[in-house]
Design goal:
Oligomer: single chain
Distance between the termini: 31 Å
Number of strands: 20
Largest sheet: 8 strands, mixed
Shape: globular
């Protein structure tokens, strides 16, 4: 039952207390809704939000990815003025090296698209790559694209930032309260059912990261979102890994990225050949494989131990793009509910996806990004997308099974 003093009506209910849900609830409140309630079955940020690597990259492989990354970067930069606290965004510059002629052609095409959207992305010749990144084994690349405005944030600090934003904006946060279903009147949502009782609301937003399909399934909604293991490790300190010598790097071909972290190097990866599913333990063989690739490209890491290693289950979609749009049940739109997934890019796209979702929930459209083709209707019954896969994404599985 509801605790004493908690009301069972709201202007909007957001399900999920991760990066997407929390920022969405904040944006709904800032949009003028008097009573916004967020329900979270655990505690704020207990899922992947506090276990992320924190990379914020605007060099996306599609216009949607570019726009979402840039909006999020700008939001992180203005957080302190808006909230009095921030997520610790650090501009570091992001290099995407090329190792084959095909890499070069694809990178130049992407760069043209990115520049047309206003990003300051430049091409570096091989010697310029080596000069920018002296930790990289020399003479290994055919060049690469670089954006000095890209950076990273501190994931636990991001959780603190959105917790403060929720508290100071007046969002009612109900932790350890589970979503159990929707209340409806015909094809219109009238609220949610929870483990603490029903809440009436004309606007409902379902998030949940890798658990979104399970959450939506409680309401009879099929969402092509899966969960997959993502691993992150941090090496011992070394003077050669000083941030002045180490831009962020994404080895797209291997699905391996790295950045500075506390005098060492943080690197992350996902295994595209691993069956989807929840996993929070470390896959030692795959970690060893990626350490070998890292040592080949950044030789100084070969002799370094690891200070920290962790894994988290993060969400992915078949086309590696976000889902932002209304719910569909048996081919018909269910009014009053919005489904949201960041497609595995919660830190990178999170605030922008959350803002767009809040806009769509209130007005049907958003100025952040054109959401017209980012809804559930781009997927067929088997979960195949009508959109091309974002080519600059972690190598998540390319499909999933819809129940």
């Amino acid at each position: 039952m509801l605790s004493s003093g908690q009301q069972n009506t709201a202007d909007a209910v957001v399900v999920g207390g991760g990066t997407i849900g929390a920022w969405c609830a904040y944006f709904l409140r800032r949009s003028g809704l008097a009573r916004v309630i967020l329900v979270e079955k655990r505690t704020l940020g207990q899922g992947a939000s506090s276990r992320a690597a924190g990379v914020v990259r605007t060099q996306g492989g599609t216009p949607w990815a570019v726009q979402l990354g840039e909006w999020s970067r700008n939001f992180y930069l203005r957080q302190h003025d808006e909230l009095g606290i921030d997520s610790g965004f650090t501009p570091q510059g992001y290099l995407l090296p090329c190792f084959t002629p095909a890499d070069v052609a694809a990178a130049r095409d992407r760069m043209a698209m990115q520049n047309a959207l206003g990003l300051s992305v430049g091409w570096l010749q091989p010697a310029e790559v080596d000069a920018l990144n002296p930790t990289l084994a020399p003479g290994r690349t055919l060049g690469g694209t670089f954006c000095e405005q890209d950076g990273y944030l501190t994931p636990p600090r991001n959780v603190t930032a959105y917790a403060v934003a929720l508290a100071t904006s007046g969002v009612q946060v109900r932790e350890r309260v589970s979503f159990t279903g929707l209340s409806t009147d015909g094809d219109t949502v009238t609220g949610v059912q929870t483990s603490a009782g029903p809440i009436s609301a004309p606007v409902v937003v379902l998030t949940g990261g890798p658990e979104l399909a399970e959450v939506a399934g409680l309401a009879g909604i099929k969402v092509p979102v899966g969960g997959v293991r993502h691993q992150v490790a941090v090496t011992e300190r070394h003077p050669d890994l000083h941030p002045s010598r180490l831009p962020m790097v994404f080895d797209v071909s291997a699905g391996l990225y790295w950045r500075p972290e506390e005098g060492g190097l943080l690197f992350g990866m996902s295994n595209p050949d691993e069956p989807p599913g929840p996993a929070t333990c470390v896959d030692e063989p795959y970690l060893a494989k990626m350490r070998k690739r890292l040592a080949d490209l950044v030789p100084v890491t070969a002799g370094l131990g690891l200070r920290r290693v962790w894994a988290a289950t993060i969400d992915y979609t078949p086309d590696h793009l976000p889902i932002i749009g209304p719910a569909r049940v048996k081919g018909s739109t269910l009014n009053g509910i919005t489904l949201v997934s960041a497609g595995g890019a919660g830190m990178m796209w999170g605030p922008a996806v959350a803002r767009a979702a809040a806009d769509v929930a209130l007005t049907g459209t958003s100025s952040v990004v054109d959401t017209a083709v980012l809804g559930l209707d781009r997927f067929d019954e088997a979960g195949h997308s009508a959109l091309a896969t974002d080519p600059i994404a972690l190598p998540f599985p390319g499909s999933l099974t819809l129940s």
